[in-house]
Amino acid sequence: MNAWVARILTVLVLALAGFWLVTATEWADTEVSTPASGEARTNRFYGAQAMLRELGMKVVKRDSLDAMPPAQARLVLGSSHWDMFPERGQRLRQWVEQGGHLVMPGYLVGGDQLEDWLPLVREKPPASEEKNEKETPEPKKRRKSGIPRIPDPSARDADCHTVNEPATVPASFAAGRSYRLCTWWSPSRYRPADRQPPALWTATGSRGTEAIRVGVGRGTVTVMPWGLWHNDSLLRGDNALFAAAAVQARGGAEIWFVAEEAREPFMLWLWQKGWVAMVVGLLVLLAALWRAAVRFGPLAPSAGTHRRSMAEQVRGTAGFLHAHGSGALHVAQLRALDESARRQLRGYAIRDAAARAAAIAQATGLEPAMLLRAMDGARTRHAGAMAIDLEVLETARRRLDANGPFTPRTSSSSPSSSSSS
To answer: Its domain of life (predicted)?
Structure first.
């Protein structure tokens, strides 16, 4: 019994909740825009280009105006930096005069490279509209360039209005002359310049001329609202039909879209054009850095030059005398003096024995006769004379190696006093 009571209460609670949900809420359909995917994410003219392809036109997308379209083609020019090079205005003029059809937004008409040959002047806005513009001024940059104002997207169809082709121009389509455009309105409106032929095609609305086409040579220039070209506006109202009328869509015709000025990254372009020079320059730079870099030391520290102890000196000298005799010691001492004299005295090698002794004596301050006697290798010496001669030769060698020659001395001195001083 308790189970049945619980089930009945559950059903009643669910019924009451459903009744409250139905009476307290309201269901309505809401449009949710689907994010763009594929090429449409990066190309804001993707919808217009696809439409023109369906109409049988050949669509070409370009990232710059470095090259001009073929004769009789259409050019949809939307890049604000198309005139970054001075010669482009003249090339565009020649292309239009030879039969090209140019389509552009109103904010590009006042460019320096167009004002000399484009037969359009800006219309003065009505007094009421001019007053509204003064009351709600736009940023200086926007007003100067003529870039159209973008309405609040929350107001659906608030930017839709009607334009008509006047009876003075041929109708673009047989179905009628009226179009419902849904895009932001542009404050820049133009008319043919004074003493110029009348416009070939116009579309006027409540605020005046919104699109105009004039002849330039054998070609035409069309100025129109630019917002209807974008993907999110093309399918609203009669925007697609009006875009086809503006470009004079014809099957088989070629149409170019130049919406921006895109350039290849500078370093990539530089590598493709001059990789040989870059590689050579890089090698030269590496060689210069290597030459200027700090050198590494040896793998192991070099042994220091230490003076030998007196005992080692005595043992070494005694061993040499025991093996070779005193004559060999004199020869070795004389060879050491000769090597020092060759380094310090100019022309020493070409002199005879007496001249060599005189040169050494002048440089060291020793007596020439004493040096000549000590340098004589053929003379027989006893132990005392050998010691004196070796001391004279060693004193002369040390004085020669002591930073160059000595100043000649006037007074004589014995070898023992010289070595001890």
So the answer is: Bacteria
